[in-house]
Amino acid sequence: MPTVFRKGKYRFFFFSREPNEPPHVHVEAGEGYAKFWLSPVALARSVGFKGHELRRIEEIVQENAEIFRRAWDEHFQR
What we know:
The chain is α+β, with helices and mostly antiparallel strands. The chain has two helices and five strands. The protein has helices spanning 51-63, 65-76; strands at residues 3-7, 10-13, 24-29, 32-38, 41-47.
């Protein structure tokens, strides 16, 4: 489960055994967890985050989508 990026309390990561899914990133902080698709950026699922937190996380994913996509491609060697 490699960490790709950190911003404040949020940790963005991949699970190593998900190469057959479209590119996405997982994020966690405290008791919150979410999964965002990368192209286009969209929330896939969330548990424990409030709406304002999800909006902030989505902004972070949008701002760093290229970093996440490059890391995805390198990790899964596409």
